[in-house]
Amino acid sequence: MDSKVSSLLFIAILCLLSSTSTAFNITKILAQYPEFASFNDLLAQSGLAQEINGRETITVLALDNGSIDGLSGRPVDIAKRILSAHVILDYYDQIKLSKLQKASTIVTTLFQASGIADDRQGFLNISKTAEGIKFGSAMKGAPLVASLVKSVYAQPYNISVLQVSEPIEAPGIENMAPPPPPAAVPKKAPAPAPAAKTPPSAPPTDKTPSKAPAPSKVEPSTPTESPTEGPVAADVPAASPLADAPLADETTAEAPAKSASSKMHVGGAVVVVGLLACMVGF
Ligand SMILES: *[C@@H]1O[C@H](CO)[C@@H](O)[C@H](O)[C@H]1NC(C)=O
Ligand SMILES: *[C@@H]1O[C@H](CO)[C@@H](O)[C@H](O)[C@H]1NC(C)=O
Ligand SMILES: *[C@@H]1O[C@H](CO)[C@@H](O)[C@H](O)[C@H]1NC(C)=O
Ligand SMILES: *[C@@H]1O[C@H](CO)[C@@H](O)[C@H](O)[C@H]1NC(C)=O
């Protein structure tokens, strides 16, 4: 009896670990739809697939083979910027879109989280129009270029994949140059300077310090964990969509920790819960 319970517990833990590590795999989801093969390839090449899989609540605006042509010819980093502005940091399926109260809603995208977005380039405008739901960049004056074609995949409320008719390109999105051009580097050469400037109190974290000087907005005291969302929240008045992203991150961190500790202390009931969670996960 005891060994049965403990082996069940073992299975339950394995299941929980494997199912909570990533809620979904966008590459796998899109692989079921050959018409999104090019889009799927670009997500993988640019590393966006990994970023998407690291999120818990997300909506991907997908482009089929026929409408992605203009993007696949671009340099990968440009394509990445544009595509990351097709990934909404919230869950919107067709039902939720049809229930939108306001004529237009501004949502935050993964491009905003990259920290290189300028003005409102990292936001999308979702509007209800006479011809249905339309999407456009939230930049002032940008047109609503893309129409909602159909819902491709939905796993409420973790991931929704919606097909849109056209790429949504924020004005100026390909002109920004976050890394200095190669020619400019040798002129400014003093390599030790940035290191000397760094306050001794600054934690010796990986690469973030080298990025920090570029956007002058970043406060030195900002925790390196969220250099992207922090300053942005202060800049843009649209509060509600921005609040979503950090919240989602917090719950991500909490949930597994809680379940792990309670699992240690309780017995059979947890096994049942674990198995249920496991089955739901599959
Ligand atoms: C999404 O996925 C995570 C991780 O698997 C899970 O904990 C959560 O319950 C899921 N649902 C929502 C609404 O976040
Ligand atoms: C996602 O799915 C693809 C294709 O099935 C696979 O190659 C890849 O390793 C998976 N990624 C993760 C993180 O499981
Ligand atoms: C889409 O294009 C990819 C190559 O980029 C191809 O492998 C795939 O078969 C195409 N799918 C359709 C439905 O045309
Ligand atoms: C969204 O776009 C439409 C059409 O361009 C515009 O009328 C509306 O004001 C925009 N909504 C917001 C909140 O900016």
From TrEMBL:
What stretches pass through the bilayer?
none
Q: Per the record, which residues fall in region Disordered? A: 173-239
InterPro entries, per database record:
FAS1_dom_sf (IPR036378), FAS1_domain (IPR000782), Plant_FLA (IPR033254)
Membrane topology of the entry: Lipid-anchor; GPI-anchor
Ranges annotated as biased composition (Low complexity): 194-211, 219-239
Pro residues bias locations: 177-193
Q: Where is the FAS1 domain?
A: 23-153
Source organism superkingdom: Eukaryota
Sorted UniProt keywords: Cell membrane, Glycoprotein, GPI-anchor, Lipoprotein, Membrane, Proteoglycan, Signal
**Span of the secretion signal?**
1-23
Annotated SUPFAM superfamilies: FAS1 domain (SSF82153)
Q: Where in the cell is it found?
A: Cell membrane
One of the record's GO cellular component terms: side of membrane
Record-stated family:
Belongs to the fasciclin-like AGP family.
User: What does the function comment of this entry state?
Assistant: May be a cell surface adhesion protein.
Q: What is this protein called?
A: FAS1 domain-containing protein
Q: Which organism is it from?
A: Salix brachista
For this protein's source organism, the top of the classification is: Eukaryota, Viridiplantae, Streptophyta, Embryophyta, Tracheophyta
